[in-house]
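Give me structure tokens for this 318-residue protein.
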Amino acid sequence: MTWLVTGGAGYIGAHVVRAFRADGIDVVVIDDLSSGKAEFVPDGVPFVQANLLDGGAVRRALEGVSGVVHLAGFKYAGVSVDRPLHTYTQNVTGMVSLLEAMADKDIRNIVFSSSAGVYGTPKDEVVTEQTPPDPQSPYGESKLVGEWLLRDQARAVDLHHTSLRYFNVVGSGDPAVYDASPYNLFPIVCDLLSQGKIPQIYGTDHPTPDGTSVKDYVHVADLARAHVAAARALDASKTLEPVYNLGSGTGTSVREIMDAARRVTGIDFTPAEGPRRPGDPSRVVASGDLATRDLGWQNTHTVDQMFATAWEAWPNKP
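Here you go.
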């Protein structure tokens, strides 16, 4: 049993690779290193440096593989508004290229890294898999199209698939792997604190208990284990739902994260406060009940543990 992890040199992908190996599953990585880091790929893991648009490279990477975890793609929702064609090329055309190569190699199992971005700004208090998709960026739309491609390809060939929709992925399961995204809250806070600067809260007038926005945060190690569970289920020919949300059902506020950062780092700071950013929802939280039922998935880390592992792995902390 060997699985290909596309985007396996990225922050999330590298954790998925480690989770598969810890579970005794061999892996191969393909990544073009546009945002991933070669040093995130563990020693001994076969690594193909290529973009999924390179069909020949994808077919070579698929040799001897029984399934695929597909994480590779352009992931910046805000930037996707300014670069829609690039986003669709990487995320939609790239998926087509991958599925064509899988069909040629008669590989029938795939776990897709989708996104809570398919929901846009949902009105539901707690998002479930029945919440209607309403993507509000080319990134979210491209992820939804990816799910449609899997659905339609499964009608045409014997393809077994599931898509995991998740929200804010945080923390680290290995001090050698960290989130370097300039758009994610945890690395922004780590970066500012490491420079002796003060993080800022945008919006303190939300209709939430402490006035700051509440979102779902999932520890990356928990997320990685969900991919392993889905892969094992597909490999055992178990029927899975087409999509699963990976969420806490409760969420964490921005102020709670700032409080955790203060406790974990020992840096005494009071966050600056500014107005809401346009379009920033007050609350986006998802239920993970279906994933718990079928994949045995749980979000096992507290907010302090999440931030502590992110801070431990942060490369520039004082």
